[in-house]
Each structure stands twice: as structure tokens, then as C-alpha cells.
Amino acid sequence: MDITFSETFDKVIECFREPTIESQLTHLQSITIIRDVLGKIRVFLEPVGALEDTAIANLHDSLAQKLGPYYGEDIWLPEGEQDGYQALIEVITSERVRADWDDGNKPDWYILERHLAKQAWTNKDAGNPPWAQDLVDRGHKPAIVAFFSFKGGVGRTTALVGTALTLARQGHRVAIIDLDLEAPGLSTIFFSDTSDMFGVIDYLLEKQIQKSNWRLRTHLRSINDEILLGDRGETLRLLPAGTVNEQYLEKLARLDFQNLVNNQVPETLGEMLKELQGAAKPLDFILLDARAGFHDIGGLAIASLAHGAVVFGTQSRQSWAGLTHVIRRLARPLAPEPLPVLLCHAMAPGLGVAGREQELQDFRDRAYTVFQENYYESDDIPNSNDPDAPFWPVVLDWQSTLRREIALFPENSSSESARAGIVSLLTGNPYENIAERLCQMFGRKLKKEVVT
Fold first, then answer.
1. Where are the domains of the chain?
2. Residue among 332, 290, 329, 293 nearest 310 (CA)
């Protein structure tokens, strides 16, 4: 019998709905399906009263027959007396979540997924940013905003740089962090020499060993070039990913292992953001350049660390397939509110290009449908033509100038006028639009008033 991972839950449901099994298990309070790190299935039953041994044996045979190699050979009940067994039951009952198909009738259905990774993408609860949302709303702490794209090469990092420059030029105090550890690039945009830069990957590893002896303040880079920031702009602070050298892959390998073994990466990233805020304060925004795709740190950035997200997609089936899951995760069904999000239509046809208006309309229509089905409660859906709604996209036209390597630092082959021209592109529309909508998201004005 062939069975796949995605069929296992359906097969368990089939077992419990078989007439013979159903008649023998008439007084079940709940059924919990536990899927382990390999995908194997076990079940935990909470009956009212005792269950007959024959009922358990018949259920065991049915599960073995329907699940085949995906059956973990365990049916757990709450009546074990050993300390270890009781600890297991406590974990199950504290970490399980309601199944999507639970209809409110008995028995209650639960699911417990056991992961080594990807928890940030599979968890449906709210994240745990380093400081509370109300502190951000009152202006006491910076808003952490994750820039995320399901696919790479859509201009996410360029948009982050443009948004950061726009905010800084308008008087906002901004820090940017390169969380794209597998393909770092923020530091190369602002500095010609990146051979001796410590950053995120070093913090995640060194902090575990050196504790307070490793200080983030020492490794923050300041960007205060007047061509980039204008005559009233605030200094931009950068925390790179780290220096890409012969040791970088060794660091990445240890980071992956650290996350799998003790799952300390989320907590350490939160401490990193707190230390950054303390070292560079006062800040208004911290912008995170998150890894594309369903990467663990990218998931943590938008689902656990951030107070808001800027999400990039293109008008393609492949992009929407991934974006739909991203939007569903940002809805946070177990939290009081979804995560504030701003959608960007990346690589859109430029003005005058045939088919532009049709593609823009198609993207808007698809965005509204995806948000309607995956982000909102049924009674909270805004009008489809609301330009301030999360599903109303900022359009990023394809621009050949910004598709080339961007270098904002002075160099012999780059005149000040050439750099100023690139800055002009990066601080005009659509990046100014992103900056303005982020300010609206957190109750701020784009042009920050100077306090004298």
C-alpha cells in the first residue's frame, strides 16, 4: 500500500469513522494526532471511563493497515502512572492545537506536530517580538519591520535600502540588519571593503560562548554620507550578516546545528535586537532583510520578531503559491490580530509596456482574493478598492538601473553625481510610497518633526 505524508491525517480520520471502531469508542472526550519529526503518526486518546482492550487492539490494527510505514505503533492513554509517561502527557496537552476539521462536537480533535525546524512557519500563534506592540504605537520603541520575498531576485534588498534612505532623509532614526545569512549583501552596497565585518552570524555564535564579553555596539556600522542622507538626514546604522570568508560556511553549519539541537536561535535573535536598540537608541525603525523562501530565520523575522512586514511577490503562479502560505501565516489565527503587512508587486511592467495595466489589475485581484481567504475574518474584510489596505500593493516597476549592482560608497569610478542619481531613484516612488505607508502603519508621519 502506498501512502504519502500529506495523506496521513485523512487516514487517521478514516480509521475513527469506521463503523466497528466508532461503535467501540463511543465515549471519547478527545483524539490527538501526533506527527513526529519523521512524519510518523501516534495518537493520544482521552476517553470517559476505561476502554476495552479489544477496542484498542482493533484501532491499532486499523491504523497499521491504513497508515502502513507511517504508523508509529503507539496509542497513548492518560492512565499511565510512570513519571516519564505523565510528563509526556503534559507536553501533549499543553502544546497541541485544535484541528482544522474539528466541528465542536465530541470527540474534540487536536494536532501536535513535532519539528526540528520550520516552527516559525507552522505555528499559528502570535510571535514574541523583543518589545510590545503598544510601546511601538506610543513611540517609545522602534518598529521592527521584516522585508520578505518568497522568491529571490525580486528587488527586496533594493527596496529595503530605498526605504531606509527615505526614512533617514526625512529625519527618522533607522537601523538595518542583514538576516539573509545564506546570501548576504547589504554591507557591500554601502562599503567598498567588507573584509573585516562582524555581524549577525557572529552574534548568534559568539554570544553563546563569550556572553557579555561580545558587544554588538562594537560592530555596528554608521552611514552618514551627506549624498545618501541629505543635509538633514539621520545617521543610518547597519548590522551586517558577517564577513564572507573561508570561515563563513563553518559558522553557518554550526548555526544550523545550534538551531536543531537547542532551538536557541529565536531567543538569541530577540536579545540581539534588544542590544541593538540599546546601542543605537533612540531608533524609530529597525528594518530586517530576511532570507527568501521558507527559511527558518526568514520565518522568525516575519512571524516572531517583527511588528510588521513588507512582502514582495510577482504575478506568477509560483509566486502566489508561496505567498498564499506566507499571508496565511501572517494572519496568526491564534492571535488577537493579524500581523500588519504591506504587499509589493515586484518586477511589474514599466510605464508604456504592453500589458502593464492588465497585469496590475490581475495582481490586485489575486491579492484581494488571497487576503480575503487567508488573512481576514469574514466580517473584517475591507473594500477591495481601499488603497490603504494591506492587499493594495505598492507597484515596483522593473528598472534596469537598479537591477545592476548598486554601490553607494565613493570610489574612483563613481562620481558624486552618479551616486546622487542612484540615491534619487532609491528615494523617489515607489520606495517613498513604502516608507510613507510604513509610517501610517505605526501612526507616524513620513516627514518627522524636528524637536528643538
1. 5-114, 121-441
2. 290
Average pLDDT, the chain: 88
Where do we find the cell 528587488?
155
- Outline where 177-316 has alpha helix (H): 186-190, 200-210, 226-229, 248-262, 265-280, 296-300
Using the predicted structure, report yes or no on whether residue 257 has a pLDDT greater than 60.
no
To the nearest whole percent, how much of the chain has pLDDT over 90?
55
Q: Which residue has the higher pLDDT, 360 or 449?
A: 360
Classify domain 121-441 at the CATH class level.
alpha beta
List the beta bridge partners of residue 42.
34
The 3-state DSSP class for residue 239 equals strand
CA distance 41 to 71: 5
Q: How many CB atoms lie within 10 A of CB 138?
A: 10
* CATH of span 5-114: 3.30.300
* Euclidean distance between CA atoms 389 and 380, whole angstroms: 12
Q: How many CB atoms are closer than 10 A to CB 187?
A: 21
CB 401 within 8 A of CB 425: yes
Model pLDDT for residues 327-348, shown as the tens digit of each residue: 988 998 767 889 999 999 999 9
Strand order in the sheet with 28-35: 71-76, 41-47, 28-35, 108-113, 97-98
Query: Which cell numbers hold the place of 260?
Result: 536543531
Question: What pLDDT score does 63 carry?
Answer: 95
Q: Which of 34, 43, 46, 48 is nearest to 95 (CA)?
A: 34
Q: Are 305 and 129 in contact (CB under 8 A)?
A: yes
Distance CA 97, CA 125 (A): 10
Q: Which helix (H) or strand (E) holds 35?
A: strand 28-35
Residue by residue, DSSP assigns 123-146 as --S----SS-HHHHHTTSSPEEEE
Region 188-216 average pLDDT: 86
pLDDT digit string, tens, across residues 352-397: 899 999 999 999 999 999 999 999 987 778 899 999 999 999 999 9
Distance linking the first and last C-alpha atoms of the chain: 76
